[in-house]
Amino acid sequence: MAAPELSHPLPSTRKRLTPAHRWWWKFQRISGVVLVVLLFAHLFYNLVLGDGVNQIDFAFVAGKWAAPLWKWWAFALLVLAMLHGMNGMSYLVGDYARSQRTRRFLNALLGAATAVIVVLGTLVIFTFDPCPQGADASLLPSFCAEVGK
Amino acid sequence: MPSTPTLYRGHEGMWMWIVHRATGVAIFFFLLVHVLDTSLVRLSPEAYNQVIDSYKTPLYGLLEAGLVAAIILHAFNGLRIIAVDRWTWALRHQKLLVWVVWGIFVVLMAGFLPRQLTNVFGGE
């Protein structure tokens, strides 16, 4: 099953791809492999162990993020998944957007959305307060009582 | 027999290519929403719990199962793409590997679905 001859072959990718393209191509694969591990652990812990999706509430998140490991886990997921998604979406933009202007606009939009989400998520993870002042104690993780907030 | 046989056109790999794109886009948009809903933990326990409670309803429970399905397909097909790019053996057997991806998908979903569906339909 030989592929048909192309009458006008595209120029070799060696010339068309910039170093940035190559970097992102590699990043997409490396981050993909890392994300498989990070994300399946995330899903297994939150949706399969314990009471599954029913266990998720403020106290559950606070309990998880009391451990630095889970904070950094969330941060790594946030950054890698957003960049992987942004780059993947920009492959689609490159494939489907007709004009240079549309491509530039959509890629700028992707970059801006990614920046906003990564900054917001990072702030939330690292400024998170598991025992906010004046909150209903029944909604907080049990360790808030011991700390004597 | 298609008139212009190529590696992909009309075969397993092409369909998986479409699945990869569609699931990738879906996961991307979910991720945006997911970061926003999780950010509510910074606002107040009540606000977060209220929004997360909707994820425990049957409708969202099904959408969530769909999300997990999309992630499994995208993840294992992604590994297949890497393998096909990297090893001649995998390139030769790329079609078989598509079926391996579907096989892993069926096994993992068979494990996950009962867990998820009893959680969201089980009532409380």
List the helices and strands and how they pair.
The complex is a heterodimer of chains A (149) and B (124).
Chain A: H1 13-16, H2 19-48, H3 58-65, H4 68-96, H5 100-127, H6 143-147
Chain B: H1 12-39, H2 45-54, H3 58-86, H4 88-92, H5 94-121
Helix pairs in contact in B: 1-3, 3-5
Structural class of chain A: mainly alpha
Tell me the name of the CATH class of the domain at 28-128 in chain A. Mainly Alpha
List low-pLDDT spans of chain A: none
Give the second-level CATH assignment, the architecture of chain B. Up-down Bundle
So, CATH architecture of the domain at 28-128 in chain A? Up-down Bundle
Q: Percent of residues of chain B in helical segments? A: over 70%
Distance between the termini of chain B: 55 Å
Q: What structural class do the secondary elements of chain B suggest?
A: mainly alpha
**Top-tier CATH class of chain B:** Mainly Alpha
* Fraction of residues in H or I helices of chain A: 55-70%
> How many DSSP helices of chain B?
5
Q: What would you give as the CATH superfamily of the domain at 28-128 in chain A?
A: Fumarate reductase/succinate dehydrogenase, transmembrane subunit
Distance between the termini of chain A: 71 Å
